[in-house]
Amino acid sequence: MDLVTPDIGLIFWQTVVFLIVFAVLAVFVWKPVASALKTRETAIADSLKAAELAKEEMAQIKEDNEYLLQEARMERDKMLKEALSTANQIKEDARAETSVIADRMIADAKNAIEGEKKAALQEVKSLVASLSLDIAEKLLREKLSDDKSQKDLIEKFLKEVKVN
Fold this sequence. Notes:
Elements: H1 8-143, H2 147-160
């Protein structure tokens, strides 16, 4: 069993070598490894903070986009309502203008008809007067062709005329 239990000298030298290796590692290796781990830990923490900020920024951008989209929809609806209102106003104006033009055309037609009617009546009156004169002239010639008829007519006119 001697082989299994180490000698006191071996333990001493193993302890001395361990302490030397530990001191060398503590002086030359431990600080760079610790600073590398600290740097890595800081980089990971910064990355996590940056990711959280990016997430919050994306949420804000999404919220802003939703707001802008809502405003755009409201603006579109407003523009559509204005366009519809304008179209209806144009239709109403066109109807009113058409009505005014139609009324004016009807009035002009009535005036033209009235003018033509008056002209036709005047022409008929003129024609009737002309025909009446022609008939009267022919009738008087026929009746007054002899002297006795002329004298009788003159006496009749004289009796009808009142002398003051």
